[in-house]
Each structure stands twice: as structure tokens, then as C-alpha cells.
Write a structure and sequence with these properties.
By secondary structure, the protein is an all-beta fold. It has no helices and eleven strands. Strand 4 (34-39) and strand 5 form a beta hairpin.
Length: 112
């Protein structure tokens, strides 16, 4: 059974940083591409970043390029999203996806 558990969300001031994590189990994590999505209130879920199996190839949405970094630790079955220079418009529930499953999401709020 695929399980994805996000953690690390919270409240941060504009310009601040936050790292969210996604712990995976129930599938071959090291053989799976992984993704981060986010959904803001009243908006559709959008793709934020993608990482391939060994972390050699990544993709970022234009809105986060240069500020966010996706990474993974296959030994720990965990994926990360380092978020720097956060803006109020980054406020959303952040979800990880992989192995044909979804996590429950973690809330990130950027506000002064």
C-alpha cells in the first residue's frame, strides 16, 4: 500500500525559508519519479517541481524557479522541497505524489 506523508509545513514571514519533506513507503521509491504539487484556496492544484529517480533531472514551475529546490534521499525513502525567498502567493497546501499515490498535504502559510 502506497503511503506518502508530508511534514515540515508552517507559518513563515515573506522572504523566509521552509523545508517540507515527504516520507514514502509501500512502493519502489528509488525507482520512481516524484513530484510536489500545491493547491491554494479557491485554485486548482498545480505542479511545483519534479525529480527523476536518481535526482539528476529536475523540473520547476516558472513561479518557483530559482527559489525552490527539490531533492531526494533514496536511502531514506524521502523527498524534500527547500523553499527560499517565500512570497505570500506561495501560501498553499503542499502535496507530494509518486508511486501512483498522494500524500495528505502540509499547509504552508507565508504571512507577516
Amino acid at each position: 500500500q502506497v503511503q506518502l506523508v508530508e511534514s515540515g509545513g508552517g507559518l513563515v514571514q515573506p522572504g523566509g525559508s521552509l523545508r517540507v519533506a515527504c516520507a514514502a513507503s509501500g512502493f519502489a521509491f528509488s525507482s520512481s519519479g516524484m513530484s510536489w504539487y500545491r493547491q491554494a484556496p479557491g485554485k486548482e492544484r498545480e505542479l511545483v517541481a519534479v525529480i527523476n529517480t536518481f535526482g539528476h533531472s529536475t523540473y520547476y514551475a516558472d513561479s518557483v524557479k530559482g527559489r525552490f529546490t527539490i531533492s531526494r534521499d533514496n536511502a531514506k525513502n524521502t523527498m524534500y522541497l527547500q523553499m527560499n525567498s517565500l512570497k505570500p502567493e506561495d501560501t498553499a497546501v503542499y502535496y507530494c505524489s509518486g508511486g501512483n499515490g498522494w500524500g495528505q498535504g502540509t499547509q504552508v502559510t507565508v504571512s507577516s
